[in-house]
Amino acid sequence: MRSLTYPQHLARQAVLLLTVSYLTGCATPAAEGPVTRCAQVTYPVYDPAEPVNRGVFAFNRAVDEYALTPVARGYKHLPDFFQQGVHNFASNFSEPKVFINDLLQGNPRRSVNTLGRFAVNTTVGLVGLIDVSDPLGIPRHTADFGQTFGVWGIGNGPIVELPLLGTGNSRDAVGKVLNFVVAPLGDSDTVQTLGTVSMVGGTIDTRASLLPLTDTLQRLPDYYSALRNVVAEHRAAYVEEGKEGATTPGPDRCATGAADDF
Questions:
Q1: Secondary structure of residue 162 in the 3-state scheme
Q2: Pairwise CA distance, residues 210 & 68, whole Å
Q3: Which residues constitute the domain of residue 58?
Q4: Strand ranges (DSSP E) for 129-259?
Q5: pLDDT for 6
Q6: DSSP assignment, residue 5?
Q7: 52 lies in a domain?
Q8: This protein's superkingdom (predicted)?
Q9: 168 - beta bridge partners?
């Protein structure tokens, strides 16, 4: 098979993003009561382009409701071992980008932790399908470019609702785009195939895990502002987690009015 050029590869990945909802980067859902409280941020959310953002949000929501959510609900009925395998594989494939951000954040302990997990799970864990690292006492943490920029002291900036990539501050929006472009494992046909599987599987797995959260938020009077505020809370706490440099993620601080790792 003829190898794709890099521009062709980017074009193909852009098409694949049509399967990604605005909630792809979110984290594990919290309970119904804490979610409502977490939506009340304790600092101003700067959203000067709110009318435009709401228009993009309506498009993103339509994509989510008609394309991704039905698939995610069906996915929840698959056997647990299958769902866990998808989750493990997608998580493991993302570890090289976590490793890069650990280094950029000046966190040698976290970078060693990430590298160890990736090596063990990719080999002993059958390309990451089995999480061998957790039982060995090597817990997983996450890191992305938006968090790295925050650790560097770059400010939030205004809220931006990106088509298909969702809501967030402008700092995180740049991080999302950069995360899409960076390919630490190279650009071979095998890596492209594994990357496609990881993107699609990870997106569906993440969306399925978020169903309780979004079902709760959609019952609130203003879904847009509720989701925007939850994301703002979670991302603020996520940056603080990066600054602390802990190798073990903390508890779901959203339940106490703070946030976790969106």
A1: strand
A2: 12
A3: 46-244
A4: 159-162, 166-169
A5: 43
A6: P
A7: yes
A8: Bacteria
A9: 160
182-186 long-range Cβ contacts below 8 angstroms, 24+ apart: 182/97, 182/100, 182/145, 184/96, 184/97, 184/99, 184/100, 185/96
Q: Give me the number of domains the chain comprises.
A: 1
Report if pTM > 0.90.
no
- 220 in a structural domain: yes
List pLDDT tens digits, range 164-190. Answer: 999 999 999 999 999 988 989 988 899
Is 164 part of a structural domain of the chain?
A: yes
Q: Is 120 helix (H, G, I), strand (E, B) or coil?
A: helix
Q: How many CB atoms neighbour CB 134 within 10 A?
A: 12
Cα distances (angstroms) measured from residue 238 to each of 114, 172, 219, 241, 245: 17, 11, 26, 5, 11
HSE of 43, CA atoms in CB hemisphere, 13 A: 8
User: For 138, left (φ over 0), alpha (ψ -120 to 50), or beta?
Assistant: beta
For the chain, percent helix, then strand, then coil, each to nearest 5?
A: 60, 5, 35
